[in-house]
Amino acid sequence: MNELTTTAIIIGILYSAVRLATPYLYAAIGEMISEISGVLNLGVDGIMLLSAYGAFLQTGNLWLALLVAAVIGLLMGLLMAFISVTLKAEQGISGIGLYMFGLGLSTLLFKTTIGTVKTIEGFQPVKIPVLGDIPFVGEILFNQSLPVYGAFLLVPLAWFILDKTTWGLKLKAVGQTPAAADSLGVSVDRTRYVATCIGSILAGLAGAALSLALVNLFQENLTAGLGFIAVALVPFGGWRPLGIMFGALLFSTVNSVQLWLQVLGIGIPSDVAVMLPYLLTIVALAFTVSRVRGPAALNKPFERGAH
Amino acid sequence: MLALVTACGGGAPAAGQTGQAGKPLRIAVVMPSATTDLAFSQSMWDALKKIQADMGGESAVELKYSENMFKVADAAAALRDYASQGFDIVIGHGSQYGSSIQEIAPDFPKTTFAWGTEVNTFGMPNVYAYTAAAEQGGYVNGVLAALLSKSKVIGVTGPVEAGDAKTYVDGFTQGVASVDPGYKLSKTWTGSFSDVALMTEAAKTHIAAGADVLTGSSQSVVGSIGAAKDAGNVMWFGTQQDQASLAPQNVVASQQYDWTGILKQMIENRKNGKLATRSRPRSRLRPTKQLPASKTAASRSSPNPGPAKGRCSARCACTRRMQRSRPANRKLG
User: Fold this and answer.
1) Are residues B117 and B210 in the same domain?
2) B324 found inside a domain
3) Does B332 map to a domain?
4) Does B233 lie in the same domain as B138?
């Protein structure tokens, strides 16, 4: 019997935590951009499912697969924006509608085109030269697959766009006081369209990351509600990229820890272990959310002159 | 692989008469996952298709199904719907559907209901309960796994510590222990039948902890099999369905559920005018009811019940089926 060293266990926990956080990061940062513009998109899970399916069909070329996932995300985003921005429908309900559409369509297409569960060659881990050789840190962070790197690069990128560009400023203005933004010549509708579409594209990439990098297969309802946890991570992270990354990593680390606790046979009941990530999220939420305020115009369709 | 399917019922008085010449026998099934899940639901659907083919195709047996019925309320609506439409046999294929069957069955006294995996028929004259002897194949898988493991570390990726998932794992554990109690066998439970991502991660965790043989049950284990395939030299032992198609190089053996035995029994009993066979716990055998003579069920009031095994088949109508072993042409280690 080979005994595991404590270092190996810690590396194991953190390595899988980083990997598990990936789809949450894509989806939650996308949702954050959408919400900052004032559009609550609850259809993330549905977009992820449809994109995960679309990407799965293109596994001969993984880059093409990512492109397909992004295009599906874009189309779903346009649909969501059309319903919630142009038609000014209630966002929560249209988002749930979008989710059910994605769930139903992906299940139907899967049944008719693939039929049964199959595994594929997904993205394999790529060791980054030099950085990958750093003991401990390199093993955890720089020995992952490409979609994982992409997810973590998205965090500074989103921060830069939101805080350092004019478009980021417009986005926040549209989500906080659309009337003021409108009076200054910023097109509220167009900004919300773009934000919702970017958010949905990222949700699409989250789906592809799931089917091509994490599980390497597709099955009906593959996400099992992952998209909704991503939506919850947005207020958890205080509508900030760094906060969302912290939230995603916290959730995935605790999940990874509970799996290791079970594997190592540490005597806690499995039911309690499975509960841990959610329990901790609720506790953390109780201490953080009350101090941050979300976009004031979130969930409110904009009508010129309605104020 | 070995597949053992055990169905328990007792004997109950006759009621409806169906399956007359010209009219097809109508069977409907409600399932928690897809008919192609390579696991629990597919095992029942494949059995029904086989029965249909054996009995003469669609003109003899009409089959309808509702899949992905994870929500019990939806499943209950579907079950009631099928019964209202006049289906002869309505099956709730999931232990979560018991309370729905219990509620619906009395409203349709001429319909045969069945549910599993369970042994409780609620004492109703038109309800079957069926279960799988999952621990039997689990034991065999466990012995094989232990003999093939080089690292002597074996991982179990389970969904919820209940039902046939638990009995399978219990059998597997005993099988491993029968070879060498010193093996390290660790178990993870994800708390979900459908969370593939977490199941994959659980399998990867076992592999990172040194496991070279994995097993597990539920439709989410496709994730575990994928993880074994990615790792390359990790072996997989399946249950519920033959899972070799997912990773031919890694799947060593699969226990397959074969429900044709109990299904045939149900159909046969219906032909003989019996809606179901009332189950009784063995310890509370009360020889009271006089049963109609039939080939498949002996009278419970028989003064001499015979030897234990014979008694069981008479009283419980236990059907045990063995299936041919799936070839183990896999790369080992």
Assistant:
1) no
2) no
3) no
4) yes
Pair (B90, B50) in one structural domain? yes
pLDDT at A125: 92
- 3-class DSSP state of B244: coil
What is the nearest CA distance from A302 to chain B, expressed in angstroms? 37
Of residues B251 and B297, more confidence is placed in B251
Domain parsing of chain A, residue ranges = 21-222
B45 and B188 both lie in a single domain: no
CB distance B283 to B26 below 8 Å: no
B196 lies within 8 A of chain A by CB: yes
Looking at the structure, tell me whether residues B141 and B234 fall in a common domain: yes
Residues of chain A in contact with residue B246, where contact means CB-CB under 8 angstroms, are 117-119, 217
> Among residues 95-154 of chain B, which lie with CB inside 8 Å of chain A?
151-153
B17 and B128 inside one domain:
yes
Residue where a domain stops, chosen among B207, B238, B254:
B254
CATH number at residue B62: 3.40.50.2300
The whole-number pLDDT of residue A78 equals 98
Residues B138 and B282 in one domain: no
Q: How far apart are CA B200 and CA B224, in angstroms?
A: 5
Nearest to A201 by CA among A62, A39, A76, A55: A76
Per-residue pLDDT band at B298 (split at 50, 70, 90): very low
pLDDT, tens only, A91-129: 999 999 999 999 999 999 998 998 888 888 899 999 999
Closest residue in A to B191 (Cα–Cα): A274
Least confident of A56-60, A80-84, B108-112: A56-60
**Residue B316 — pLDDT band, cuts 50, 70, 90?**
very low
CB contact under 8 A, A255 and B155: no
Query: How much is the ipTM here?
Result: 0.90
pLDDT at B185 over 60: yes
Cβ-count burial of B188 within 10 angstroms (0-12 exposed, 13-18 middle, 19+ buried)? buried
For tokens 């980083």, what's the residue? Answer: A18
Joined tokens for residue B186: 């660790």
- Please judge whether B205 and A259 are an interchain contact, meaning their C-beta atoms are less than 8 angstroms apart: yes
Mean pLDDT of B205-231: 94
* Residue in B184, B206, B222 nearest the CB of A219: B222
User: What angle is formed at CA B117 by the lines to CA B114 and CA B119, rounded to 5 degrees?
Assistant: 75
* Residue B327, domain member (yes or no): no
Please enumerate residues of A whose Cβ is less than 8 A from a Cβ of B: 1-2, 4, 8-9, 12, 15-16, 19-20, 23, 107, 111, 115-119, 210, 214-217, 219-224, 226, 255-256, 259-260, 262-265, 270-271, 273-275
A164 or B23, which is more confident: A164
Question: CB distance A264–B186 less than 8 Å?
Answer: yes
Q: How far is A119 from chain B (nearest CA, A)?
A: 6
Q: What is the mean pLDDT of residues A215-235?
A: 92
- A contact test, residue of B41, B43, B152, B188 with most A CBs within 10 A: B188
Helices A270-288, A226-236: crossing angle, 10 deg rounding: 30
CA neighbours closer than 13 Å in the CB half-sphere of residue B2: 17
Domain membership of residue B242 as a residue range: 134-254
Residue B287 has pLDDT above 50, yes or no: no
- Report the number of distinct structural domains present in chain B: 2
Does residue A306 carry a pLDDT above 90?
Answer: no
Q: List residues bridging with B25 in a β-sheet.
A: B61
Measured in angstroms, the CA of A97 and the nearest CA of chain B are apart by: 18
3-class SS of residue B128:
strand
Q: Does B216 touch chain A (CB under 8 A)?
A: no
